[in-house]
Design a protein that fits this description.
By secondary structure, this protein is of the alpha/beta class. The protein has helices at 3-6, 12-22, 35-41, 59-68, 72-77, 86-98, 112-120, 132-146, 157-163, 165-173, 188-200, 216-221, 244-253, 262-274, 282-293, 295-298, 314-327, 344-354, 387-398; strands spanning 31-33, 44-49, 79-82, 102-106, 124-127, 149-150, 179-183, 205-211, 256-260, 302-307, 331-339, 358-365, 375-383, 404-407.
Length: 411
């Protein structure tokens, strides 16, 4: 008998049972049309707002389903989980609510804000190892030593069926949905969604999304070596290997898997904020990033996007907004080599102001060796309406015999 045949996978009935279990304790999040995203992508876009959960992510569905399945003895001994993010908070929150002791092992490199949030939900936090993989080793050791039940973030029967409850809600709200686009890390969310959605509507498409830096499931589905690593905005789906259960579900039920670039994820996070007025973490932006990367793939289809979570560092979010303004050429940086004499800086700023540019930063330097002894460099960052407006301002400066170099152009 094959390994796949030995695996017990959830069914639609299992997902429906999970929905009854979590009813009233996990929000039935809104699934709403997004006309501005539809206009932008050419698809009819609907968004499932899982960032509105108490812990601001979908992980509560699977965590509560798993915790509710425990025996009284298992509850008394407690549970343990390994996570650097949303799974940690979901397990901590619902374990505390149910009176179950919880221990969360997190890498020592986990940002303090996430450690504090997890402790705030009532968990005992153990910091161990430099990576999630090293933290997992410690979590298994503690589970064995103390008789704790390990709550896996994705490769678990109950966790998978809990995540699948989202598909029940989506198809109840929008039965004519053609496609569901879902971020893929370990594959628990995608697996649960696929099981429920395909059972209810066999012709619906389930499209997973990974980043090019972490194409783990993409490689496994093609029996290729996995090359994953690097710094990604979508750290919530930066998983180096899918689970045994989730890989088998993907082989059977996933219709497509799209890889997206970091710039597309950044743009998606920014679009959620500026167009939908909602917070999306990098992993949550991946689904929308797929529509930006392959618009023809989804054109004129009724597409449900999973906005899986909103736990993003505000500093990262502010950086993304500025970077997107630069990509749209609404913020422009230029460098000029100018004569070091009175009045030059005033002349340049007068041109910028007269032509409607809003100066954000100015840096003036006389010490660069490539600058003549009687010269200086002038770097100016300014706001404009668009790329054409920027070129008008640059042309006006060049008409005064300044040599203008664009810095950090759009990518």
């Amino acid at each position: 008998m094959s390994v796949a045949a030995d695996l017990r996978l959830p069914t639609l009935d299992d997902v429906r049972a999970a929905a009854r279990t979590i009813a009233g304790a996990v929000m039935r999040t809104p699934f709403l049309p997004a006309p501005r995203l539809s206009q932008l992508t050419g698809a009819e876009v609907w968004v499932k707002y899982e960032n509105l959960q108490v812990t601001n992510a979908f992980k509560e569905r699977g965590a509560l389903t798993k915790l509710a399945s425990l025996s009284d003895e298992e509850r008394a001994r407690g549970v343990i989980a390994m996570s650097a993010g949303n799974h940690a908070q979901a397990v901590a929150y619902h374990a505390t609510r149910l009176g179950i002791p919880s221990t969360i092992v997190m890498p020592e490199t986990t940002p303090h804000v996430k450690v504090t949030a997890t402790r705030g939900f009532g968990a005992h936090v153990v910091l161990s190892g430099e990576t999630v993989a090293e933290a997992e080793v410690e979590a298994f050791r503690l589970a064995e030593r103390d008789g704790l039940t390990f709550v896996h973030p994705y490769d678990d029967f109950d966790v998978i069926r809990g995540q699948g409850t989202m598909a029940l809600e989506m198809l109840e709200d929008r039965p004519d949905l053609d496609t569901i686009v879902v971020p893929v890390g370990g594959g628990g969310l995608a697996g649960g969604l696929a099981i429920a959605a395909k059972a209810l509507k066999p012709r619906i498409e389930i499209v997973g999304v990974e980043t090019r830096l972490y194409p783990s499931l993409w490689a496994e589905l093609r029996d290729l070596p996995i090359h994953a690593g690097g710094t990604t905005l979508a750290e919530g789906i930066a998983v180096k290997r899918a689970g045994r259960l989730t890989l088998e579900i993907a082989r059977r039920l996933m219709d497509d898997l799209i890889l997206v670039e970091e710039a597309e994820v950044e743009r998606a996070v920014n679009l959620y904020l500026t167009l939908q007025k909602t917070m999306a973490e990098g992993a949550a932006g991946a689904a929308l990033a797929a529509l930006l990367a392959a618009p023809e793939r989804f054109r004129a289809r009724k597409v449900g996007l999973i906005l899986s979570g909103g736990n993003i560092d505000p500093r990262i979010l502010s950086s993304i907004m500025v970077r997107e303004l630069a990509r749209e050429e609404r913020i422009v940086a230029i460098r000029m080599i100018i004569p070091d004499r009175p009045g030059v800086l005033g002349e340049i700023t007068t041109v910028l102001g007269r032509m409607g540019g809003n100066i954000l930063e100015v840096e003036h330097s006389r010490t660069m060796l490539k600058v003549p002894a009687k010269g200086a460099t002038l770097d100016v960052v300014f706001e404009v309406r668009d790329g054409a407006h920027a070129q008008e301002i640059i042309a006006a400066l060049e008409a005064l015999d300044y040599v203008v170099e664009r810095l950090g152009g759009p990518r």
